Amino acid sequence: MAQFPLLDPYYNPTETFHAFSNAVFNHLDTHYEPRGTHLLEPEKMKALLVFLSSPEDAENNRQLSSMYYNIVFLAYSVQTVFTAHGPAVTPAGLLTYLRSEILSDPDDSGFKSFKQASEAMGLRFHFTRSQFPPVADPRAKETQSYIEATVRNTIKDMGWTQAAVYNEELEATKVRIALEQMGEQNALDLVSPRFCYSCYRYPCTCRGALSL
Question: How far apart are CA 95 and CA 25, in angstroms?
Answer without folding.
Answer: 9
